[in-house]
Design brief:
Layout: E1 3-12, E2 27-35, E3 39-43, H1 50-57, E4 65-70, E5 73-74, H2 80-87, E6 90-93, H3 105-115, H4 120-134, H5 149-160, E7 167-171, H6 179-196, E8 199-204, H7 207-213, E9 216-221, E10 224-230, H8 231-236, H9 241-251, H10 257-266, E11 270-277, H11 288-295, E12 298-310, E13 313-324, H12 326-337, E14 342-344, H13 345-352
Parallel strand pairs: 3-8, 3-9, 6-7, 7-8
Antiparallel strand pairs: 1-2, 1-4, 4-5, 9-10, 11-13, 11-14, 12-13
Helix pairs in contact: 3-4, 3-5, 4-5, 5-6, 11-12
Length: 353
């Protein structure tokens, strides 16, 4: 699968130098590819540079240096006519919907088609098709003020799809919605990607959005790209502490130091946290039961943890209290570490002391 969007050594600086000092870059030497046909999440805290990055795709911003290519075209060299044509292949969905409250739902969806010069009959047919696709055909004559947040976002998505774009940019499209409505909208975005083949670039600060629908993810912090790759790989093997914090806030599988102290006060035995990830080199995820059976005479209880799935592959961790002879406990920990990552909280406490 080739890249439909490519950022090569892209830097973006807003403002001019003051007293010889250059403002900090909003984006700092970003090199990143967006695979055609994928759903790619760009995640980071406020001020990470996410929205700036997405605005480079449709040339609402231009890079201070570096190259941005979209569908084989160098965006920075396109003239007015070229940019207009490019933007017709890119749809955009916003956090605050950006609908015209004075117009009906149908008129909102028809607006980009009218700008594109479609005749009335063709516009009406396309609007009907789109409203049925996003599930609000019965709201065609309603005004946006009569709709729920989720319905408004469906109108926004239908409008973004009006000209059959190759790329859909979703900038914090679910952050103003409640959890249930968020899942409905994420399901719709997945439907668009799978049924229409649209490449979707999701800008978000919510890791659960990435976990739910994205194929790939890029993590930004203060304008820098920390890491990027398939979602499962980034979740299972994060290389950066900021990425790890995002993941922890989503999966909530590892105990905090305070929780560890509470567990140690409640249970006698050896406290260990075992990572549950799908590892090709061991033919799947860790088999704790098999290790316990092989070693023998070790009792294990799960006292904390969470395991979920990403792309039908398990990910998370479970914290056990192990009881038995110390020699056998050490053997269990040793064998588990041959299969996966293990935190031996007894050893951690001893090292801290």
């Amino acid at each position: 699968m080739s890249d439909i969007v490519t950022f090569t050594d892209v830097t973006k600086v807003f403002g001019k130098p003051v007293k010889g000092a250059t403002p900090p870059p909003a984006l700092d030497h970003i090199t990143l590819g967006i695979r055609e046909g994928s759903i790619t999440g760009v995640i980071g805290y406020s001020g990470a540079g996410k929205s700036t990055l997405v605005r480079l795709v449709n040339a609402l911003e231009t890079p201070s240096s570096g190259s941005v290519q979209v569908d084989g075209q160098e965006v920075t060299t396109l003239g007015e006519t070229g940019l207009k044509k490019l933007r017709s292949t890119i749809g955009m969905v916003f956090q605050q919907f950006n609908l015209f409250n004075s117009r009906s739902v149908a008129a909102n969806v028809a607006y980009p088609l009218k700008l594109a010069g479609w005749d009335k009959a063709k516009r009406q047919a396309r609007v009907k098709e789109l409203l049925e696709f996003v599930g609000i055909a019965d709201k065609a004559k309603a005004r946006p003020t009569q709709l729920s947040g989720g319905q408004k976002q469906r109108v926004g998505i239908a409008r973004a799809l009006a000209t059959d774009p190759k790329i859909l940019l979703a900038d914090e499209a679910t952050s103003a919605l409640d959890p249930e409505t968020t899942q409905d909208v994420l399901g719709l975005l997945t439907k668009i990607n799978r049924e229409l083949g649209t490449t979707i670039l999701v800008i978000t600060h919510e890791m659960h959005v990435v976990r739910s629908i994205c194929d790939d993810v890029a993590v930004l912090e203060k304008g820098a790209l920390l890491e990027a790759g398939p979602v499962y790989d980034i979740f299972a093997y994060p290389k950066n502490a900021s990425t790890r914090r995002f993941i922890d806030s989503t999966i909530q599988d590892q105990p905090s130091p305070e929780t560890v102290a509470r567990l140690r006060g409640r249970y006698d035995g050896r406290l260990v946290t075992v990572s549950v990830v799908d590892r090709a080199e061991v033919g799947g995820s860790v088999d704790v039961a098999a290790v316990l059976q092989r070693v023998g005479n070790v009792h294990a209880d799960v006292v904390y943890g969470s395991v979920t799935e990403i792309g039908e592959r398990p990910i998370g961790s479970l914290t056990y209290v192990l009881r038995g002879d110390e020699t056998k406990l050490s053997q269990v920990v040793r064998e588990l570490r041959e299969q996966t990552d293990v935190i031996d909280w007894n050893a951690e406490n001893e090292e801290a002391a």
